[in-house]
Specification:
heterodimer; A: alpha+beta; Alpha-Beta Plaits; globular; B: alpha+beta; Uridine Diphospho-n-acetylenolpyruvylglucosamine Reductase, domain 3
Chain lengths: 500, 368
Amino acid sequence: MSNDGIFSAPRFPVDKALLLARLREHLPAHSLLVDKEDVRPYECDGMMAYRQMPLIVALPESEAQAQAVVRVCSALKVPMIPRGAATGLSGGALPHADGVVVSLARLKKIVRIDPLARTAVVQPGVRNLAVSEAAAPYGLYYAPDPSSQIACSIGGNVAENSGGVHCLKYGLTVHNVLRIRGLTAAGEIVEFGNAALDAAGYDLLALNIGSEGMLALVTEVTVRLTPKPELAQVIVASFAEVSKAGDAVAGIIAAGIIPAGLEMMDRKAIHAVEPYAKAGYDLEAEAILLCESDGTPEEVGEEVARMRAVLERCGASMIRVSQSEAERLKFWAGRKAAFPAVGRITPDYLCMDGTIPRKSLAHMLLAIAEMEQRYGLRCANVFHAGDGNLHPLIMFDANLPGQLERATAFGGEILELSVELGGTITGEHGVGVEKLTQMCAQFTPDELEIFHAVKRAFDPDGLLNPGKVIPTIARCREYRLTHSVDSAVGMSADQTLVKV
Amino acid sequence: MNGPFDPCLARWSERIRSATTERKPLRLRGGGSKDFYGQALSGELFDTREYAGLAAYEPTELVVTARCGTPLAELEAALAEKGQSLAFEPPHFGPAATVGGCLAAGLAGPRRARVGAVRDFVLGVKLIDGQGRLLNFGGQVMKNVAGYDVSRLLAGSLGTLGLVVEVSFKVLPVALAEQTLRFDLPGENSQSLALARLNEWGGQPLPISASAWVDDTLHVRLAGASAAVCAAAQKLGGQRVAADQASAFWISLREHSHGFFAVRAAALWRLSVPATTPALPLPGAQFVEWGGAQRWLHASSPAEHQAIRQAAAQAGGHATLFRADPETKAAVGVFQPLAAPLARIHRELKAAFDPHGVFNPGRMYAEF
């Protein structure tokens, strides 16, 4: 059997008893999970529609142990699946039937915080928010703040190049990491980047960030810390038309303002969130914008006034400015709770992650409204408007026959439209296994071949996270054949899914 | 997906294919303003200036897409007209500097410590690889994690991986207000004092956009909302520098036309070290930028070269032989040597993009 029924991961002939014996030479019993009930919690990540039981789960507690695991797997040619907090939404940490899940959850030490240099050295299992908490006494914080920051780990952030609601101004993970220390697939220790602002040679640091655990296993990360702004204020603006909200976003940028945060939610998202998070959003609005300003009190005062003027000119029907830190957090709580709030009103949902040029926002939202009719499924939209990253949440019920397939096709169509509009299939959630098919829409066979060659440069035997991120040329050939016949309905024929 | 092949690109692709077949290396070159940078030049000259102009620019998207041969000055003028800029302040090193050369060299100017380097602003590239194939990586949007981040990898790769024909940059609005402050710090400990201040200020929410210490004087540039710049200027003190003088000063740093760089020594070194690295006990005058993270110094003897490289490595950074005669470059090596696993990955990546080694062989490291 060459396909385990979930996605076309290549199979590896593995002697489980030998593998286990070799791993036991280096790891204590409590760091190796083998029994079915013990490995069950590892069968999926945040993308729960895809599940696969791993052969073994290894939980190294030091870099030396991680290196031993990698060396054993490398010698026996066993796949390795790096795993952080498993909050990923694209199945990047989905286990391999013949492989070892290498959980980095126990590598969770904050090794050092250097307030003068404004850096923190942390192990990959440290939670995103824990870095900011540890840096807070020095008036510093770690800027990238994905919505899952309470749970997600720095190692996972590196794998996905995570953003957050403040990344237009403060950048993504790639802009805030100075150095990665890790292991190659052969178990050699490597360092990409250093304690300075750049390193000699090719920018392997940038290449590794967002590589979804395909190129190296991360054991330590140096992040840049940012001085905490003295003040932050958020404006919540209501609009009676989505297109006006879109114009306001363009207007703010055209005015030369880079807001600390610029988020949009449509009517369905507002109505899902409000009863759940009680953020005080305007239920009459077709769309709301959250525009944040931070800096010195003088700076914030000046910027809020300028943003307010733009919002008014663009036809905002209501404008509120947070008057206290508590109110600011309340306004943000609604946006940050959008995913669980939608989860409450539907048995299942798919979260898409396309990024488009901002000017195409209204076009995309209209297209999504039409797709809702055609697929017979509802879709709420939250949008990192500042950087064009759209998160449509397609609601469905996996227990009703055909709904998962319809939702998947719906999502695929959104992503393909993102590519057509000059954007990308994934802004921050990664390709994982979820978007392998859409990779065929975004890249030519020649480009995919370069990706495979990049992978081989780091991992010649293809042992790190095999089958993820970069589809095979054969799969894309099949996609193109199917797609030219059936372009209106997306690519569902090419995707094998396991129903949960 | 790449659209119809532009006639110029079609010719270039053909030329690269035949260079590959004949195993004839090519030396990719825009305006030649950075010919001095990197290891020795070799291969048949390939002038990239024919493919020029802005392919797309939409100020409200904060994105500009320029062809490789576009003069850097022309791109900057187009952005300035809309009140925007390349925030990393790339050095030109001559009026002929092109966009392609800016990306390939990967050099950033005074604002680097504040906003980031060239790679931080690269959103996408179109390139021709060593097999003459036209490829697209990244795009024109702010966030993109589809596939590996090849476009950032190309920044600073000195044209050794491919011929980048088009690049998309994130652009930023020009700051509403700017004020440069000057602090005279006479005495033995001048550099240490400057480093201490820069690191202390770096940890505070101050709108510092550039800094420089040389000749016992520290310059700090504030940039941002007018209220923020005013408040910070009051807080930091120092002497206020007139706008035209300040602008000339920062340009002289960026372009190495400042008196410090006019010294006729055998070699100019660039040290990239953690900002908190104490003043390096090395002979000769030093020049500190980027809040302490970039240091320039002159050296003339082989012993000094070795000491500089060691000092940078010990501090946790690296040293580049930025300007030197070909003999010194060959003897010392322009770039810090790579650890064995990294060197192997470099060779493999080179082979992935340019399997027959036709692009700028030896420009970065002699072995590829």
